[in-house]
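Support case: fructose -6-phosphate complex. Customer-provided input:
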Amino acid sequence: MCGIVGYVGKGNATERLIKGLESLEYRGYDSSGIAVHTGANLVVEKKAGRLAKLREALAERPLRGRCGIGHTRWATHGAATDDNAHPFTSEYSKFAVVHNGIITNYEAIARFLRARGVRLRSETDSEVIAHLIDLYYTGDTLSAICRAVKDLEGSFALGILSVYEENVLYGVRKDSPLIVGKGEKESFLCSDISGISEFCEEVAFLEDDTVVRVTAERTEAYDLMKKKRPLSFRKNSRAERGRETPFFGSHMLSEIREVPRSIEETLAAYPEEAVGRILRGDFDVIALLGCGSAYHAGLVFKTAMREIAGVPVRDCIASEFLTERQTEGERTLFIAVSQSGETADTLQAVRRAKKRGSKVLAICNAPSSSLSRLADETVMTHCGVERAVAATKSYSAQAAVLLRICLQYADIYGKITKEESRLYLEELSRLAEKTEEVIRAEKALEEIAKSLASADALFCLGRGADHCAAKEASLKIKEVSYLFSEAYPSGELKHGTLALMTKGVFALFFSTDPRLAEKNAASVEEVRCRGAQAVVLAAESAAKAIRAERTILLPDTIPAFSPVVSSVAAQLIAYYVAVIRGCDVDRPRNLAKSVTVE
Ligand code: F6R
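Agent response - structure generated as follows:
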């Protein structure tokens, strides 16, 4: 999973490509590179490490031209080295290729190429593409690309330059997103709209198995048989570009501070009628799909549906769902949750569900994403662009809007009275304000982070909805601070994990349900008397009797809603633990924002 960008037009290709790569760096930052058609040759500059390294190299050896491709990499095959960085060129640099996705049959292709005398210089699955196009070239680049693409298995979006065509870009899409953008006498290719948005008046989203030939003025689309395909451009609206977040020195911190606004705007724009149509549809079961934090937001929905509507919901981690025997029939309503709408596992799971005839309701933050286009209906989260790798405001908005869906379901099917519905909705509308209150306690949460930062290991613990919050807290802390962290239901401790509660270990408890306060107090004692230290995030009404090293009081809310509030405290703790441990908070090692490979 990587970001690709392409440019052809009147401007300086290097500048435009670097600008695009800056916006795409969230998709991977193990290496970056560009290839430019200089008029005579295809010239490549590429570097392992952050984009700054590539910028330094280009300052020393500038590349001038009007047409080029660029890449920012998240390593899947081959370490993060200069040699494994994209773009890749064929022998004598006749073709240059950037690739996002995975070529699953690359070993067979590599053998095929080696048998014909081709020397491969990288350990990647991507390099073979450039050589294959070269091998098939007999005077027409488009034909060579179509033939090569037919040999490729896996998922991919490609940007391609041919030395034979100075001001032409080629792009290919199969199961990985690719967009063409039109500006004034210039055109772009990009993995996502954020990379080119500021230059484009119009954009077109490619369908699978499409090849595009792009010049400054014109784009032609073809299928793999070289038959022309329609390609519809539409206005690049402001909504598409997404609102930008005020910047407080770190994207993660800035985005946490945007949680209240994201919740508020998402709930204000809730498409009640459209969701009502889906919820009144013909289904027996609801199943949730998502990965990582998006999956955790789904768990909040699952808990609320059980506690408020009394209805069981199946939760599916998308990658697991893909390997399991599918037990859901067509009478299952799938709710697919994804910030980017481009997560490969989630998209594949949705395709599988749709193949069985199920309806899919998407929760997504990117209006033109692959997920939004696949789903029967989409509820947008209005978070603006989320740049930090760790999901924060998107998780909070997803959880809030899923609660809204739960309440609408409960209302439609008479699971709650009108009066209960009114009270729940009122409380939902107060959640944004309550997260604001948590953010005001930032200093106290930073103090907690100071004690956690030196822990040998951390356990995030809770019961019921608090366990959902604990799971998200644990993920956030481990991914940005690299502190070993695990989430557990508090009641499960005594069945094994208590063996790890020794000096140097910390337990972060969530206690937001007054009905469970005593049980939680007992769990805290169990941990502390074995030498571990306990920190508690407790709602005021659920803090009684809890004795811990530190307790932070959170605003009270309905227990099923509490992860929306308590996870903001956890997000701030994760942020400060990472800062104290000297981590690159916005770009944690080995990760990328959008995981577009299975
Ligand atoms: C964690 C995180 C990831 C994403 C996951 C799904 O902070 O950001 O776990 O939540 O990769 O991404 P989306 O929501 O784009 O499908």
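The CA atoms of residues 538 and 553 lie 5 Å apart.

Case will auto-close in a few days if no follow-up is received.
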